[in-house]
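Homework help board

Subject: predicted structure for assignment chain

Our instructor gave us this sequence and asked us to write out the predicted structure in token form, then describe one feature. I got the tokens but I'm not sure how to describe them. Can anyone check?
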Amino acid sequence: MTTGDEGSAGPDAEVIQLYGEPFDSGFALAQEHQLAADHGAASAVYEQLLALAESVEDSPDVRFLRAHLLSDLASVRLTATDLTGAEDAVERSRRLLDGIASEPMGPRGRQLWLEVLLKTLLCGADLLRRSGRLDEALASLDEAALRLPEFEDVEGLRASELGLNRVHLLMERGEWGRAEEHASALLSTMPETVAEPGVEPGAQAAARPVLETVPRLLTALGLICSSTGRYDLAEDYFTRAEDGFRALGDVGEQQTLVVHRAYTAMHRGEPDLAERLFAEAAAVFAQQERFGDLAVCEQARGYLAGLRGDATRAAGLLESSLARFERLGAVIAAADTMLLGAQQAYDRGDITEMKRLAQQARDAYQAREVYERCAQVDLLLAKTLEHNLNVADHGAREPESVGTALSLALPAALALEAARYDFATAHARSQWLQLADDAMALAFRLAVRRQDQGLLFELVEHRCAGASLALDRTTVSATRTGAAGPAVFPGAAVKVYGPGGRDGSAPTLGGVAADAAASAGLRVAPPPKVRMSAESGRVALQEYVAAAEFRYQRRIVDEEEVPFWVTDDLTARPVVQIRLADADDLFMAWTWAGGVRGFGTGHGPADEVDRAVGALAAALPGAGDGAEGMRRAFATGALTDCEAEHRLARELARALWPEGLTEQIRQVAARAGRPLIRIQPSPRVAQVPWELLAVDDTGDVRLIELADVVTTAPASLRRTRVTDAGADAREADAVAVPHGETGAVVLVLDPRVPGFRADSPLGSVLGPPGSDPELLSLVRRRLDAGAVVPSVAAPAEAFRRTDLDRDWLSGALRKRPRRLMYVGHVSGAPVEGGQSEDGTLHLCCGPGTDGLAEPVRTHRPLSAKDLLLGTLPLRADGEPGARIWPAPPRVALIGCESGGDLRFAESFGLATAMLHNGAELVTAARWPLPTSFAFHRLGGLPEAVRPLTDAVLAVDAAHEDPDPVRHFTGWQRERLSRWRATGRVEHSPLLWAALTSIVV
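My token output:
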């Protein structure tokens, strides 16, 4: 075979000289038609050329020409959603290519044969994906991957197309997290810009093939973000993709973007805009006879018509969409339409039709292993049962009906919740949880309806177990389903399944792509099993977890187990462990230990909880409000006015605290002394100062007067905490840390942040060095008691230092001190971003310091992400953060919202990072702290009164005590007494109630 050696293999600005006329100009003309979205004209050109080629005397070269024409024709037919015609062309092309594989070829001829073979395999994989034959599609991609190393892919076109097809396959199966990571990694290896004007035509053409894949990758990322609730980011990707398609002159893809934007508008809650865009796109697709894309528009418009209450129009559009998908052989898309039809049949009250369509859809999903859609159907059926329970009297059969609904809803909810573990960033996972939370709320409602206290207890325990930090560079599989809201709408029409196995294996990425994937974000793994009983070995929700893992082929929990209760062996006094979970309403579970037995559950209605939490938020200085927020908190906030503060404390107690639990605490305290309350708040109530709750209707009795209070972190930390390089987790509880442990005290007191003056936003928090005699006395006491780091000759030298950067801190902590006290600036992460690991400490690090946080002017902060991941994302021989910054047993982080970790669905902020790295107790702040200067300026206090200094002294003294929690809460009780007696602002809980001790 010699044809390939006689012409130029690379693209030209005009016509590629390859086969001679009229074939070369015909290929160019067909491509022009395809870019203009005139697929009928492009097909006609290829068919004419094919007929001509078949009339030429047969030879290996002619058979190769026919294979090439058929491969391109298949691509055009596929774009036009002629799946049957595309399949015929792919099969014929492949037969011809296989038939000449053993013919003699020159080096260039072999490369041309490989290129057409790869195009045919990729087109075939895309075809199989669209027709729902996902395993066959994966096999075709795997074959292409095996052939790819033989091909001289100079521009990287075929490699990028293979990667894009894998992304689409991941999306089709609903593997959104893996799809996003794969697409982002692939995109990071590819140039995106169009060649500059004036560049030689040949050079610009040479760059073009890679560019053709870039906007398609951007489109895929936009669809992933839109399908997982990140609409602004989706629009950014679509805009960049549109620019790329415009530069390429690809009209068809620009038109398809209209559908994607309509899809985004629909899920964003903009139905009118969505309808207009879908109608606009449908008109174009009908004219171009792109019937598959037209069916997508009809599917969506049918959904929108149902939302408007136009049942007749909705039924007609869905019927038309279903018929088109079935004619095209698009099985999964057809099943998506059935699922919509089932939802709308239910809305019409046609239960028989709903069940028929839902079961047909589920059968299609199950056969093709699209398990996220199976979960979606199960949730629809469970919601149907719940609604029926609400409107009909089931009599003696109600327990059976509730049990059936739970057997459908809870495994599906667990699978949806677990899908988040595949996303590479906490932001993506937090957005996904907003979609999945509706399913979990259904499970909680059904448990309440069954009055199953044991199930509610286990639901709360599982919900509070927390994700586990994954420090390796591999990922687990992910699932996507759209289970949000009362109606169900399927994922994007251009969806796609993973190249990895169902066992959680990850796609293999090499070179820069692997590095990009590894550094994409903080990876997490499923939570541990929560062991509910040492005797029976039962773990939380074990039968529902087993059902979810079997039905949906997804790992729900890790194989490791943690006991839900660990305090019995560590304390002699009574302890009540309380955990709270958000599931629309607020749910609480508690259990007693330390010589007391008993457990209970409770829940607060969402509207009451939200109202109380909103009142608290109005009283606090918001993290993003800066000086104005602090000024408002002093001027009008409830925490600086005695009467208003008591009203707020009572409102919080009514909404969040069961009266029955208060009575239990009173009874225990009367018999055995003041108990310890260990409370793990849900994100919604993480800023609540539980100590302040006014739990008595007849007087002003606060919770802290009945018990000591400590905050607990998720149970997943019990197995991930490390204390030094290679050490296993320590299981000790902070309240039992032995007194007199040897080692130094590390003091980081108001470090000077590079580039920020003392009176700037990141300036001094404690005032000029030596100006506060009580702080000087604190340092002197520590010097007299033992070693202090940094080494100082005089106490004043410990303040406003310029040499306390992350490298210094690493060296100090590697020497195993017994304590760390940090007093300085902390920047909390925005809750809406979902990434608690973005919280930062401000040390003396310059902008050139290696780290994972972005520089702030001439300074790079030390983030919680640094403390957790260390240098793993920065270099191949990197170390985890626990080896670089091993935390001592007791850590104080006195800075604004330094303990805001628990406000996030995933607690990986500064306080949690210290616990992960080995700390047993971390004292931190729930909200932004006012400095003494703020009290002087906004509260009118004289300069000699320094409330922040008092708090620092109290924390220091508590951390030197054998029982730091008892000591610190004793100080808080003393502050409460002064506040009630004087009402003076220096005793306001605005400062002292912000501080809490956090343990595992």
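Reply (TA_rk): Your tokens look well-formed. For the description, you could write something like this. The radius of gyration is 32 Å. That's the kind of observation they're looking for.
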